Amino acid sequence: MLKGKTVVLGVTGSIAAYKIANLARMLKKQHADVQILMTENATNFINPITFESLTGNKCLIDTFDRNFQYSVEHVALAKRADVVMIAPASANVIGKIACGIADDMLTTTVMACPCTKIISPAMNHNMLHNPIVQDNIRKLESYGYVIVPPDTGMLANGDMGDGRMPEEKVLFEYILREIACEKDLKGKKVLVTAGATREAIDPVRFITNHSSGKMGFAMAKAAMLRGAEVTLVSAHADAEAPMFVKKVDVVSAEDMFNAVTAVSAEQDIIIKAAAVSDYTPVTVADSKIKKSDDDMKIELKRTKDILKFLGESKRDGQFICGFSMETDNVIENSRAKLTKKNCDMICANSIRTAGAGFGTDTNIITIITKESECELELMSKESAAHVILDEIKNRI
Fold first, then answer.
1. Residue 238 Cα to chain centre, angstroms
2. Could you tell me the CA-to-CA distances from 317 to 72, 269, 314, 324 in Å, in that order?
3. Nearest to 199 by CA among 310, 341, 308, 299
4. Alpha-carbon dihedral of residues 264, 267, 268, 269, nearest 10 degrees?
5. Rounded to 5 degrees, what are φ and ψ at 42?
6. 189-393 CATH choice from 3.30.240.20, 3.40.50.10300, 3.40.50.300, 3.40.50.720
7. CA angle 98, 101, 107 (to 5 degrees)
8. How far from 333 is each of 66, 312, 316, 388, CA to CA, in Å?
9. Which one, of 209, 203, 201, lies nearest residue 236 by Cα?
10. 252 — phi, psi (to 5°)?
11. Residues 318, 270 contacting (CB under 8 angstroms)
12. Distance between CA atoms of 367 and 348, rounded to whole angstroms?
């Protein structure tokens, strides 16, 4: 995913420096070229050899170190960088950068970098909330630096409060958002529905389905990585929702209908990947006998058809993509749905096909439009999401 990308990681003097070793490993696993810059203080918390072993690159500390392959190392590295992340970022280094001070390899390189720079503050919570530190953070934000909000929890000195550096996965997602994909959907608003709705029978029992939400979440993440402003309306899901999207949690089909219709008009692209229950239970008591639990009867009432509503209310320029999971006659049934519900695209698959059912990490999708049908090979849901977005982008 990050092949050909250069990520510069700046490590400062903080106990959280040990987390960056794993971040470097995660980035290398995605084939990024990872370059590490350390302050002298950082070397007291983690040995540079650790980073050199993980990245295969020399760890840079001294501005005047002559053992390097470029004539002016900080300038050469700054030109190559696709993104810079300083994590952990100490109050000292934040203050230096905010005031334009470049007196070591890290600050000098950062000052020369034209790419996006991400700062992850890590310090004692009293230091974090010092007005001077807060002013410096706001100053960096005003200059276009991306600030990663610190976590709250137990700090190195045993205090409880904010100031913790987030886990490596969070930092990794910030880097992915910046450089993983071309921003070909920038300026577009995308609405994605995901998960399985639940229709209550009583306070304990409900009707639902086996949807894990993985495909819908993959669609939302892919659109976000490509620069779209994403709203994710999610029912129950077994997957972890992507970061950097506006998430609206719902339970029932009625909840999802209301959430979708509240924002659908302003969306450029709508992707309905949720498995919505077709029926909701209505409890009816037999009036001739005692109204105990054993005497209750359940009738089923159809829920509102979200995709049909979207098709009927589609505005000019809006693109609607639905998902269709079938057991038989996949293409015929899905093409009928395309026409009946006035969609622009249907992504169809069969629950009977290995690797394409509920709860899997892979899918086999046939993309159906009025003009064509394109069957994709077995691939991860993340890869399938990008292929689907490619097809949508070519039609909007």
1. 15
2. 51, 9, 8, 23
3. 299
4. -60
5. -65, -30
6. 3.40.50.10300
7. 90
8. 68, 19, 26, 20
9. 209
10. -95, 170
11. yes
12. 6
d(CA 317, CA 314): 8
Instruction: Name the nearest CA neighbour of 212 among 238, 249, 250.
Output: 238
Helix H or strand E segment including 63 = none
Domain ranges of the chain: 6-179, 189-393
Catalytic residue among 92, 209, 333, 342: 209
Residues 393 and 371: their CA atoms lie apart, in Å, by 16
pTM score of the predicted model: 0.91
Greatest pairwise CA separation for the chain in angstroms: 95
Q: Is 130 a catalytic residue?
A: no
Q: pLDDT tens digits, residue range 210-257?
A: 889 999 999 999 999 999 999 999 999 998 999 999 999 999 999 999
CATH topology agreement for domains 6-179 and 189-393? yes
The interaxial angle of helices 105-112 and 73-80, nearest 10 deg, is 50
Identity of the amino acid at 325: M
Query: What is the SS3 assignment for 137?
Result: helix
- How much is the pLDDT for 287? 47
In CATH, what number does 6-179 get? 3.40.50.1950
